[in-house]
Amino acid sequence: MSGPAPAAHSGDVPRPWAGLDGVVRVLAPEPSGPGFTAFLDRTLTHQGEPFAAERIDTLQAMSAAFLADPLLRADAASVAAAYWMRRAQVARLREEFQRRSSDASVVRVPVGRVLHIAPSNVDTLFIYSWALSFLCGNANVVRVSQEMGPVVEAMFGALRGLAEAHPVLGAGNRFVTYAHDADATAAISQWCSHRVIWGGNETVAALRPLSLNPHASERVFGSKFSYSAFAAAPYLAADPAEGARLASGFFNDLFWFDQMACSSPHVLFWVGGEREVAAAIEAFEASLQAEVDRRGFVPSVSSAVHRRAFAFELAAGADVQVALEHPGFIGVRVRDAAGLARETCGGGLIRHSRLDRLDDLVAFAGEGDQTLTHYGFTSEALSAFAALAGARGLDRVVPVGEALAFDVVWDGYDLLDDFTRQVRVKPA
Amino acid sequence: MKSPARELLDLPPYGRTQVEKRADLTQRIEALTRFHYEACAPYRNVVDRVFGGLGRVDFRRIEDMPFLPVSLFKDLELKSVPDAEVIKVLTSSGTTGQQVSRIHVDAETAQVQSAVLIKVAQHFLGKERLPMVILDHAGVVKDRRSYSARGAGILGMAQFGYRPFYALRDDMSLDLAGLRDYLGTMKGRRILLFGFTGMVWQHFVQALEASSLRLDLSDSILIHSGGWKKLEALAVSQEDFRERLRAVAGIPRVVNFYGMVEQVGGVYFENELHFLQAPIYSEVIVRDPVTLAPRPDGQPGLVQVVSCLPTSYPGHSLLTEDLGVIHGADLPGTAMKGRSFEILGRVPKAELRGCSDTFQTRAA
Q1: What's the rounded Cα separation, in Å, for the pair A35 and A20?
Q2: Is the ipTM of this complex over 0.85?
Q3: Which CATH number fits domain A20-222+411-424: 3.90.226.10, 3.40.605.10, 3.20.20.330, 3.40.190.10?
């Protein structure tokens, strides 16, 4: 069915997506449902209510479906996503949303129709982006990469299983894929009232020029660089249990996405004197390797080859010391600024650098920096640092182990704001 | 520096037992390591910063001496002679957009490389030059200033033949009539055929099979090289490859060889058991891909190639991105002494999960 354009918009809305049915493949929630173009037509008048009960119920059901899937249950990042969609966690989000809506002169409404361009390989990120927008009451089109991993396949499988019992999914949401086709993205960009591009730089550069409908807004997330700071003395003084907890948290930060997420740390800054820091690095690497052994983690051959080549190349050009003795990762002690270039290697390569004071890190911070994970600093020191480094571009300061935790404030922008509009109401 | 391989040129290339060969080669690799350490700053940096400096290196075993990942030649200019002495720069083959290795060769390295190749090839071909059929098109070697790995390989082999005949047209179609005429004029003589594995398969074996015509090359030897990837994708085994060559052209002897532009002189020809064989100038080591611990015979791992030849650039010990397995040394069933090994494939390109780009870069 080609669906007549709805009355409210029919006069002035062009339909550049008319030819997309053969191009766009719908993966979920109903792969065999009505045509994609009919969906776009129909949802031009989509109306949803933020945090409606049926939406919260749907996420709760998704959470349960994820945890019931053997493959997803074994994937730590998917389990985290499932927990994030649970009723109790969503209730906290709703409270946050209601706090923002407490001003009687503001009514928050859905932004309308959201196009999400998911990153190709952070398998779980698209779920957060979609779930938040879905909770805010929007219609959604989520474009994922054609090269889906088994995790993403399993998530779509779970979604398809819920479509019948939760009609709100099929009514306003399509998870799709299509070939690298600027025309398809351009057409759907005319449909949406908000577009969010989850990076990185090349994707943003390629897609941002595609024009949006005149009333639409946009959020883009470029490639980011993240690092970590440890105070050496408190680290050395920590008891073994604390050291093991840190190693476990750092392991997650490092390896959940093969150290290729925007928030994965690449440089570990140690604050302290020469000797202290040397001892702390040694203890830290031993502790991280022990965690690697405990989890029985073996890096892929590709990762091992790739990160080794990166380390050798670093050694050829910068004053560094490369330690190849740990099978889980490569540690590189960096002694000059040439070794601190914002290149990302991934796959388990950590560069260590020493600082006298945390404030010395301010000068390093720059635009495109995202997360600092930290250990051993006072909250006053961190707040002072955040003000200075944040002004230079850093987005986020969180404890070790929380680098990849999803937050409604992402890269400094509030997604609850992005996915809603504020209607001012002034009684006479 | 004179290439340490020079002193080996009068010896038969497969004449030393593994024990004899190791004792000799270990000293030559030490000498090259020390030379390149002095002559090439980035190499010195790597030795100092990854291997702890020459003082920390145990020179009693080649396994304990420094090596470079082969990919380093893609990003860095590594050479141990002044620019004025570089007579050619070899580049690896790579698909468009891929970075290629750049290998700086001086007169000494080029001469000894050529001499080593002659010694090894003569082991298979004898001292007399043979009429030669090149299973490629002549265009590959036209521009002599920029040798591709493919062109350089053909020119390197061409010195063992005479009246080279390029059996493929520029459009890669098999010039069957021309080939028959050529073979007619060479009747009664042993023929040398050379080509790259994938092309031999696609443009010779398959072309002949499609035409249902057969050739009589019952007195010939085919030498081929190049990745096995294409054939593996088609599920063609090495045995199939030899068998089908015999069926379409009666070729009785097919010899594969392994080597890479990054290590000139490191040539590994197949022995009678169809394993690759390390001659007296070279060695092969297999390591655990993650821990780098040397692997015993029979256990697969990452292949390291060692050659006492290159003096113009630090390519004497390279960790490749190929997976392989050593089958032993001085094996019964072959007169060729030294280590026998097999290449199992290439390490897949790192495909890391992460915030990588949704779309590949493409022209708008």
Answers
A1: 9
A2: yes
A3: 3.40.605.10
